[in-house]
């Protein structure tokens, strides 16, 4: 049992002072505000709950910054994707483990305590299944266990290169499964994470480009009540191709033909109409927003203000992992809206409200729903995922409550987070993860070879 005492802590009911939190068996056993620190309490200034990165492709951390050289033609998501395919074809299972371990270390240092791993790098480089179909998923689980981050594994079904069941092309060969093969992969993946603390599993039909309607119906039972994640309407070309195939836009098609509900997370949903946004919000499905990646790839700007006004729920993910950070994602989300609407504090939710706090609360709730976490936050019964901020940081000095969150998200650098507990274990102290040095050395060795 561990006793922690915080001068200030963000509880589900709001900010409270002099809060004692008792941690036992990886969970929060008790939360008591308004008490003086007792002998043996570990004392900190400002405590927040950890958040989830609800959408990650871990292997892409290895290529971060390697697609910034413009070619002769227009550079878009589709040209970036070719670079990604070449990188993916070169990685061994050990490479994926090393890259994912550093990524998860970095996520924890930035306050992410759970990751939704949208995992589609399944097979051998020539496209042949490994003897253990879940060989690559096992490396993701290995990285999660080593770092301490909680894992929601989302094996991705990927069968086609475009709408209407088009044959996959060679660069996608490590991703491709038949429905029967995917069923076997799901069984193997469940076994892989069975003994991983606090892990769970869902399914991820990659996109309407990669999955036919018949295949989508066939794989849905494999979710077994777990979360369902899908990429949707990320690019204008994707919307145009979907219209040509079906007469419907991607989000429109999903809302009309798929059982979209609170278990679902539509990743990106960038290019949506007002009618789609209103209908999407009514389902209770989560908008999985990845503002850094969406900016990096030139995707566009999600209509976040309209979605929130319609009662929608969002969470954030790190997607391509070109830059990892809660503050980075939430700041980019708000700044994109400011540029779009030419206003400030667009997503605050109303006059006199803190934009940082509103963003944080939404991301906490949306991430929990998208990754099927019934209890989150600094509350009894929740996994003990706790983040402390350094009150001596120049952007936090003299600030408390919502002002501290605003200072962290909009004004601080990477030094604002002091400690992080994941599942009750202190994995980050003084801003650094206990595996940082070893994880970086392994990562650098792998990436130097892959780049060469």
UniProtKB/TrEMBL annotation:
The keyword Lipid biosynthesis does not apply. It is an enzyme of class 3 (hydrolase). One of its GO terms (molecular function) is formimidoylglutamate deiminase activity. Residues 46-426 form the Amidohydrolase-related domain. Transmembrane segments: none annotated. Its EC number is 3.5.3.13. Its cofactor is Zn(2+). Pfam families: Amidohydro_1, HutF_N. InterPro entries: Amidohydro-rel, HutF, HutF-like_N, Metal-dep_hydrolase_composite, Metal_Hydrolase, Metallo-dep_hydrolases. Residues 1-45 form the Formimidoylglutamate deiminase N-terminal domain. It comes from the Bacteria. The keyword Metal-binding applies. Keywords: Hydrolase, Metal-binding, Zinc. This is Formimidoylglutamate deiminase. It comes from Bradyrhizobium vignae.
């Amino acid at each position: 049992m561990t006793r922690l005492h915080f001068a200030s802590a963000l509880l589900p009911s709001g900010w409270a002072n002099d809060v004692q939190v008792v941690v036992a068996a990886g969970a929060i056993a008790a939360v008591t505000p308004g008490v003086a620190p007792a002998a043996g309490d570990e004392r900190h200034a400002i405590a927040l709950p950890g958040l989830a990165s609800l959408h990650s492709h871990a292997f892409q951390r290895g290529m971060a910054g390697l697609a910034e050289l413009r070619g002769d033609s227009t550079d878009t998501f589709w040209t970036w994707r070719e670079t990604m395919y070449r990188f993916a074809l070169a990685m061994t299972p050990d490479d994926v483990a090393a890259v994912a371990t550093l990524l998860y270390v970095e996520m924890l240092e930035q306050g992410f305590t759970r990751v939704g791993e949208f995992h589609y790098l399944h097979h051998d480089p020539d496209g042949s299944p490994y003897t253990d179909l879940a060989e690559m998923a096992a490396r993701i689980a290995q990285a999660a266990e080593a770092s301490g981050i909680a894992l929601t594994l989302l094996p991705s079904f990927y069968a086609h290169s475009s709408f209407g069941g088009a044959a996959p092309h060679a660069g996608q060969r490590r991703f491709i499964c038949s429905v029967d093969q995917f069923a076997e992969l799901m069984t193997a993946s469940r076994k892989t994470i069975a003994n991983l603390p606090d892990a769970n599993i869902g399914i991820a039909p990659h996109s309407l480009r990669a999955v036919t309607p018949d295949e989508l119906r066939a794989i849905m039972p494999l979710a077994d009540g777990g979360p369902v994640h899908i990429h949707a309407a990320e690019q204008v070309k994707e919307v145009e191709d979907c219209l040509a195939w079906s007469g419907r836009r991607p989000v429109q098609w999903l809302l009309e033909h798929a059982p979209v509900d609170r278990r679902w997370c539509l990743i990106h949903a960038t290019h949506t109409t007002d009618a789609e946004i209103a209908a999407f919000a009514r389902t209770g499905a989560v908008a999985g927003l990845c503002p850094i990646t969406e900016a990096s790839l030139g995707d566009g700007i999600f209509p976040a203000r309209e979605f929130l006004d319609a009662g929608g729920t969002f969470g954030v993910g790190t997607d391509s992992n070109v830059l990892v950070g809660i503050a980075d994602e939430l700041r980019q989300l708000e700044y994109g809206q400011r540029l779009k609407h030419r206003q400030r504090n667009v997503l605050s939710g109303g006059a006199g409200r803190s934009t940082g706090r509103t963003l944080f609360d939404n991301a906490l709730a949306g991430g929990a729903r998208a990754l099927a976490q019934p209890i989150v936050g600094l509350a009894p019964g929740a996994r003990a995922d706790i983040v402390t901020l350094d009150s001596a940081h120049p952007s936090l000095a003299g600030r408390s409550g919502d002002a501290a969150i605003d200072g962290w998200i909009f004004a601080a650098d990477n030094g604002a987070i002091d400690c992080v507990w994941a599942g009750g274990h202190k994995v980050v102290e003084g801003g650094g993860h206990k595996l940082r040095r070893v994880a970086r050395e392994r990562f650098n060795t792998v990436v130097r070879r892959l780049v060469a």
